[in-house]
Amino acid sequence: MTKVRTAVFPVAGLGTRFLPATKATPKEMLPVVDKPLIQYAVEEAADAGIETFVFVTGRGKTAIEDHFDMNYELESVLKERGDDRKLNSVTDFRPNSGEIVYVRQVRPEGLGHAVWCARHAIGDDSFAVILADDLLLPSGLALRSMIEEHERTGANVVLVQDVDPADTGKYGIVTPGGATDTATVVSDIVEKPSPEDAPSTLGVIGRYVFHRSMMDELASTGRGTGDEIQLTDAMAASLSSRPLHAVTNPGRRYDCGTKLGMLEATVTVALERDDLVDDATTVIRQALEAGTDRRQT
Ligand code: UTP
Known about the structure:
Elements: E1 6-10, E2 31-32, E3 35-36, H1 37-47, E4 52-57, H2 62-67, H3 72-81, H4 84-91, E5 100-104, H5 111-116, H6 119-122, E6 127-130, E7 134-137, H7 141-153, E8 156-162, E9 172-179, E10 184-191, E11 202-210, H8 214-219, H9 231-238, E12 244-248, E13 252-255, H10 259-272, H11 277-296
Parallel strand pairs: 1-4, 1-6, 4-5, 8-12
Antiparallel strand pairs: 2-3, 6-11, 7-13, 8-11, 9-10, 10-12
Helix pairs in contact: 3-4, 10-11
Uridine 5'-triphosphate (UTP) binds next to helix 5.
């Protein structure tokens, strides 16, 4: 079994749930406090041992490439000012030359199609897929255990969590078919079932670890839900040739593709930061009191 050293970051979607913010700014560049979602995702991958970062980008996503490049002017001004803290904040996380690969998805034809666009960059190796709009904390915890599961068993691996039964239509939902000490063995998986049709409430959240053969499944996957090429359909097809294991998320997940998830992540991360916790607590308290006053008048 090959070691998992490469991660694919599909970032070519339109981000329509976050309009108008995402009209000219990629969703993955939206910040939680002061760091863009895509940087959390890259740091998480590095924390889990990933060495090559493959971005599937599209039209209007150049801000993501710029974010991971050197900005000479900014860095020399910060150096001249002796502002090491700010300088480190723009240099510390940067992967080295050659560790980032960019491929293009010409049109957003679905998550499965976006992953397939990375096929030449993957070569013959197993790989992870990371959706940056799912922010997972603590960084690297879930992905590390998924990689271990794949390297130990050879199974394809998804990350799941118990979702609100009313929300099954927002997720890929798995049918549990058994269990090992470390994972649920998946017997089927279906994209966005209605609550009446859902086989369980175990929803797939944005982390995957796949054997290279998933690229072949994707190559022969037709259009599914939403007329898009769905990763879930390729995973369902792969069940006949390779087991699929679901690891339960051992940490916290914030759905930053939605307004409320982003708000929750922002408040939580601010309250966890030593430099912000006091002022953030005051501001949140004042906002809650003002809200109560307004509702009472
Ligand atoms: P989403 O399902 O969140 O779609 O994609 P979206 O277009 O980004 O956002 P909404 O639903 O319109 O608000 C999950 C991930 O897959 C990527 C997105 O960039 C996001 O990171 N994606 C999706 C692609 O790269 N290409 C696609 O064709 C679709």
